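Regression test attached.
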Amino acid sequence: MIRNVELETARRLVLEKGRPPGAEKVGLLEAHGRVLAENICAPMDQPSFNRSPLDGYALQAADTRGAAPGSPVILEVIDTVYAGGCSTKEVTGGTAVCLMTGSPIPEGADCVIRQENTRAVQGRVEIIKELSRWENYCFKGEYSHKGDAILDRGELLRAAEIGVLASLGIAAVPVYQKPAAAVISTGDELVEPGTEPAPGRVYSSNCYTIACRLKECGVKVVSTGIVGDDCGDIERAVAKVIDEVDFVITTGGASVGEKDLIMETMGNLGAEIIFWKIKIKPGSPALFSVLKGKPVISLSGNPFAAAATFELLLTPFLEKITGNGSLGPNTLRAVLQNDFNKKSPLRRALRGHFVQDDSGKALVEIVDRDQSPGNLQVALNSNCFIDIQKGSAGLKRGEMVYIYF
Amino acid sequence: MIRNVELETARRLVLEKGRPPGAEKVGLLEAHGRVLAENICAPMDQPSFNRSPLDGYALQAADTRGAAPGSPVILEVIDTVYAGGCSTKEVTGGTAVCLMTGSPIPEGADCVIRQENTRAVQGRVEIIKELSRWENYCFKGEYSHKGDAILDRGELLRAAEIGVLASLGIAAVPVYQKPAAAVISTGDELVEPGTEPAPGRVYSSNCYTIACRLKECGVKVVSTGIVGDDCGDIERAVAKVIDEVDFVITTGGASVGEKDLIMETMGNLGAEIIFWKIKIKPGSPALFSVLKGKPVISLSGNPFAAAATFELLLTPFLEKITGNGSLGPNTLRAVLQNDFNKKSPLRRALRGHFVQDDSGKALVEIVDRDQSPGNLQVALNSNCFIDIQKGSAGLKRGEMVYIYF
């Protein structure tokens, strides 16, 4: 076991124990919101035929020489193509084929004239404008060619991606299976929301926050619950879920108090303890162990400390086990808008509120200067963390800081 | 019926026909990702009692006068409080109560000393540091008071909001019911992905893109499908779903071609036609009608035009019918990174890619200078629209433009 690890080391150690997810093939609508498990190449040219971009007539540009409203060129209309149709006629000099937007352009034609620049007359069409070759002519493969890389493994499939897959005729895609997790909150002080707390008790919120964050990251949460500060109870709770899940998150009991029992419990269960405590505020009392090959991440019982450590410690791990390459944290540089006078012997994550000014410049304001790790409500007004380096003597308004979302 | 309406007018006309959603009460985990239907005030003080922020001893600051490692003050430990417990003893001069982080501070005490600044000795404790009154003392109601506004109606409930609700003991909240929609794509040229298209046919993608976007906006999509260019078929398809849904989106058939049948169909069904065509590129051939009091929004069959019109036209409507006050589009000012030489007689939405430079300045690049409305794949590289005003003669690199997401 390593004590007091750097955040980067802790991140790497947790990451190493994560297993990449398996894949399953699902239909497009079901694939929405899932993570692509294979690179996708175009199975066809797009468009798949030479295509008219407008309603009009396919013809030969040479035939339009000199055409104008006062001196129309008259062509014979040899066919009309409606949506979904396809003309087998060949356009030769003096002839034209009437087309709808999206229709295939027949052989022999080298341009398409817009309907508004023509007059239809009894099986013929008057052309009143000159065209050049390939004008209004959308080529087969103009958007993408068969074999082109379209989407990469690890991309989250949102509406635009699903639409593109459909347009290429792809009805089902391989997506990563969702990893399963359990969340266990420990603490004799915890009661479920909706009940009346005895004096000294507090409502359990970590289970809810963490279960919801896991879902937002694409993890299936199979169970959540409260367990009291009793080694036997915690052991039974962990043992009960460990075979059904890919990893477990616990909160509480990872500090140094007399009732901080997680390390003892995990030892009793035969888990390998990897590290205890991270050199960052808040959230330092985190424990990481591995039981039956499954990561067990034990976070602080303090709501903000638990939430901050979740984001800072677990993102690379969650990206690995969900296959989603872009869970963040997205890092940005921003100009600090207020002073922070505290010294930071440990690296520190401050809650910040990010905005842009009129010129698009990134600004960030510290929203909780007292930084109480129990105050979850401040999180509602913040949208990022400000990264304060170890040894900082304080920060002044106007300094450039790193923020992450 | 109004022809050729301004985008803002079109938006307002559709918005007017949207009905605000009903509400239902659901448990917290189910409420995740839903929209809050009522303002929430704190039902209790947070914390709900005077609380120790650390492991240590509650005592009277006056007793610590002169305390130092070489001259400790010795106090009698009259009680020990574990997590979830509560001492009924009163701290008086010369006494202390041992506390865990989060424990209630007993009556009589006015500060808490950190365990590290003490030495425990057989029922007593040696204090080796001076404290002032209210040091390490977290007051009842310090984070929020009973009755404080916590969350507003219309907020999307994400992990942070769910956690705060749990911490206040709220087990279930009123959320808006999801509106139901059907998506119908019309066009003889359309075939479902996964099948082999005949010459001239193309894969249906609008149904997929729009159904997924609706889901992302919090709408329940009850049916999607393709219908050919036949008035009777379209009438039957619309009539079949209209009673089950709150609104219908159709694509294709809203233009001026011979097979553009949506207006005729909606007229046959007895719908009130509100407007036809919007003064914006792409996407101008949109039709809006109301059937049995339900909005029917008919978009272009061109994939990008349909997607752009969806975003630009429907956002206020979707915000109204889902109750979600922040579906966007979020507007930002950004510096254009390339020239755009086309004239824009109509207002135009260009696909752009938004980035920030090192100083946090907002930049946007035009990603599809040919702006083909059929090319959906360009959407994969873009993350915003650039708003080009009607009458623009073109834009130069370095100009400030409005973008929306």
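Expected vs. actual: identical. DSSP finds eight helices and 25 strands in chain A.
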